[in-house]
Amino acid sequence: MKYLVLLLVIVAVLWLVRSRPRAVRPDRAPASEGSAPQAMIECVHCGVHLPRAEAVAGLQGHYCSDAHRLAHGDSR
Questions:
Q1: Nearest-angstrom CA–CA distance, 71 and 76
Q2: In a domain, 9, yes or no
Q3: How many whole angstroms separate alpha carbon 7 and alpha carbon 44?
Q4: What's the CA gap between 47 and 19, in Å, rounded?
Q5: Average pLDDT, the chain
Q6: DSSP strand E in the chain: where?
Q7: Which residue range is the domain that position 55 belongs to?
Q8: Do you know which InterPro entries this protein is assigned to (predicted)?
Q9: pTM for the whole thing?
Q10: Four-point Cα dihedral 51, 52, 54, 57, nearest 10
Q11: Are 74 and 57 contacting, i.e. CB atoms less than 8 angstroms apart?
């Protein structure tokens, strides 16, 4: 019987804690323009995906580095 009373007290406390009004969180700040999604491309030599802005362009495609561009035989 005492366990039933203890369980009811615990349930009542939990119910009171969860039913009280919560503080309203401020909305997130809008994302800056620098965090806009970028187009991803694949390195022709190794297959790694990277942002287009960081890729090295060659005649046969885009590469993740100059070393891979040269290793693939692309001389621009």
A1: 12
A2: no
A3: 64
A4: 53
A5: 87
A6: 40-42, 49-51, 56-58, 61-63
A7: 38-76
A8: PP0621-like
A9: 0.53
A10: 150
A11: no
CA distances (Å), 4 to each of 17, 18, 55, 73, in order? 20, 21, 67, 78
Q: Which two tokens stand for residue 10?
A: 């615990």
* Residue 31 confidence (pLDDT): 61
| Model pLDDT, residue 3 | 93
59 occurs within a structural domain: yes
CA pair distance 38, 52, nearest whole angstrom: 7
Q: Tokens 């919560």, residue?
A: 22
What percent of the chain lies above the pLDDT cut of 70? 83
**Residue 52 in contact with residue 62, Cβ under 8 Å?**
yes
Residue 29 pLDDT more than 80?
no
55 occurs within a structural domain: yes
Q: How many domains does the chain have?
A: 1
For residue 74, is pLDDT > 70? Answer: yes
For 37-66, write each residue's pLDDT tens digit.
889 999 999 999 999 999 999 999 999 999
